[in-house]
Recover the amino acids of this structure.
């Protein structure tokens, strides 16, 4: 008797924690460059393309190290990129140098300030480096606060000052900085606040030292009525409304933020990456662990603690991008420098196999490191948390050239167009992402096909010990208006090392009759296509892959099988 198992819910997303017998019905043990539909299906993510056509700062490839992107809705809407020791800005895709110079390890940080008269952007540039303000076209360097350069009078709050600091934030009616340098002495655990309503006036005694949670404040953010202060292993809140009522409250001493680049704020919560715990969200009252399904990435040594400072957490739309320096670098190198560290181009879990015999690589220096335990320091994987899919689920992205997504944000132009963007983590280009009419990534002028696939959970029909004749599966393939070709690899009996067989399915593209609105993504329906027999096995698993350069998606999969008769 022919039996059928139908799967049409894939909203559980990626789960590295569960083994073959523990995955939920709607989870996947592996996927790449696919988005999950709230209604249950999966499809290749939209493509990305260059926003700027000339290199930012005229920098060469591999000479670009972006720290953050920032959308400023000031006098004119601008996109700013803190990269290397500079800050660049644009309104239309052509980046200019603000002339700012920074020394902060996490790059320049930004705090918008608006009043009835003007709109300004204040920035910290690192301990010992003067902060600055930006009005949209002109940068003004601020005088470092120190002895003989404090403004202790509330009666006459004048000044063009700011303590040199690693971090800055606007909270209520004051400008705040953290991790300061004063009179040549570093205060990595100190928070300072300006006069109320005067961001360039600072009193000498207006500070709070935050003790505990590891040495050094790693970030400050304003969230509701709380100024959150992050340390490596703790989070504090500063409550109150003036210097007489401010109080420091410890919220947790179990988790903290690896760096300011690993913190992002939404209207509902503050997301942050704590090493080695993973991604958490604070909603103003409680901390929630969002990383349980991905924790083996850390536990198996997929990236080392030396690279924790390079983790990037960004928000695009309602999704959170967590970019990790996991595995090995995507580029091959020629070794003619003592600073080079070799990496193979194959992703490795556990740091065991590096492939040092790669053709064409020359080892010119005895000081070159060939240590399989040293992981890449550039982001190679981006894990995307989408709270709108089920109760929240993970998927995984990678750019077409093998890098992860860099610091990302939503940029809204003066014309009101929303452009989700990401800075490439190594090349001096900002990319427009989520381009629904693109099926490749164009980076620095070069088009790259996307590697995209979805691996299903194992199907054993509820009887793991019995072999079955698995017949031709049927896939409900999305009609996306273009010809679609999918490759399906078939694995047997919980063995993912080698596919037992494979086949392709094809679907001719069709357009919708009468056209459709230009501002609504059309639903062109779907078609049921049949695959090849999956073979005799106790359990089967499918890896569905796109062929590159074209869209694809699957709404449901039906597995058909005949139970094999067994002898008593």
């Amino acid at each position: 008797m022919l039996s059928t198992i139908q799967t049409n819910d894939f909203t559980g997303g990626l789960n590295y924690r569960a083994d073959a017998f523990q995955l939920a019905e709607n989870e996947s043990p592996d996927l790449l460059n696919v988005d999950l539909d709230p209604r249950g299906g999966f499809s290749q993510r939209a493509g990305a393309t260059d926003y700027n056509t000339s290199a930012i700062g005229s920098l060469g490839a591999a000479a670009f190290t972006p720290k953050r992107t920032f959308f400023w809705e000031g006098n004119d809407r601008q996109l700013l990129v803190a990269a290397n020791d500079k800050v660049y800005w644009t309104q239309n895709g052509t980046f200019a140098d603000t002339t700012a110079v920074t020394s902060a390890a996490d790059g320049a940080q930004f705090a918008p300030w608006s009043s009835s008269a003007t709109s300004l952007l204040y920035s910290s540039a690192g301990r010992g480096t003067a902060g600055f303000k930006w009005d949209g076209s002109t940068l003004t360097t601020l005088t470092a606060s120190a002895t003989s350069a404090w403004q202790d009078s509330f009666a006459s709050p004048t000044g063009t000052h700011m303590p040199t600091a690693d971090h800055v934030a606007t909270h209520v009616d004051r400008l705040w900085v953290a991790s300061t340098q004063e009179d040549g002495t570093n205060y990595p655990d100190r928070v300072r606040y300006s006069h109320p309503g005067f961001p360039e006036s600072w009193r000498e005694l207006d500070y709070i030292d935050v003790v505990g949670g590891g040495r050094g404040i790693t970030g400050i953010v304003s969230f509701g009525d709380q100024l959150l202060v992050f340390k490596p292993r703790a989070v504090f809140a500063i409550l109150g409304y003036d210097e007489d009522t401010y109080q420091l409250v410890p919220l947790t001493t179990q988790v903290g933020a690896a760096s300011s680049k690993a913190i992002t704020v939404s209207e509902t919560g503050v997301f942050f990456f704590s090493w080695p715990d993973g991604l958490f969200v604070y909603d103003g009252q409680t901390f929630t662990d969002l990383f349980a399904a991905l924790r083996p990435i850390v536990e198996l040594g997929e990236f080392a603690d030396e690279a924790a400072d390079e983790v990037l957490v960004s928000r695009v739309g309602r999704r959170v991008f967590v970019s990790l320096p996991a595995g090995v670098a995507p580029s091959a190198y020629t070794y003619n420098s003592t600073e080079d560290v070799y990496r193979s181009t194959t992703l490795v879990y556990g740091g065991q196999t590096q492939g040092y015999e790669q053709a064409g690589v020359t080892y010119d220096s005895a000081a070159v490191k060939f240590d399989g335990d040293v992981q890449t320091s550039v982001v190679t994987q981006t894990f995307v948390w989408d709270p709108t899919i089920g109760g929240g689920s993970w998927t995984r992205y990678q750019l077409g050239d093998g890098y992860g997504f860099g610091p990302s944000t939503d940029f809204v132009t003066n014309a009101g167009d929303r452009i989700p963007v990401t800075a490439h983590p190594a090349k001096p280009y900002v990319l427009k992402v989520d381009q629904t009419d693109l099926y490749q990534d164009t980076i620095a002028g070069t088009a790259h096909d996307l590697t995209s696939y979805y691996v299903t959970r194992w199907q054993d029909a509820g009887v793991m010990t019995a072999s079955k004749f698995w017949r031709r599966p049927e896939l409900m393939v999305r009609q996306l208006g273009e010809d679609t070709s999918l490759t399906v690899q078939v694995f047997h009996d919980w063995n993912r090392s080698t596919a037992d067989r494979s086949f392709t399915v094809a679907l001719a593209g069709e357009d919708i009759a009468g056209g459709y609105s230009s501002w609504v993504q059309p639903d062109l329906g779907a078609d049921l296509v049949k695959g090849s027999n999956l073979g005799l096995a106790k359990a089967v698993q499918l890896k569905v892959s796109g062929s590159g350069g074209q869209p694809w998606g699957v709404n449901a999969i039906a597995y058909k099988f005949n139970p094999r008769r067994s002898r008593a």
Residues 296-299 form the longest helix (4 residues). Confidence is low (pLDDT under 50) at residues 332-374.
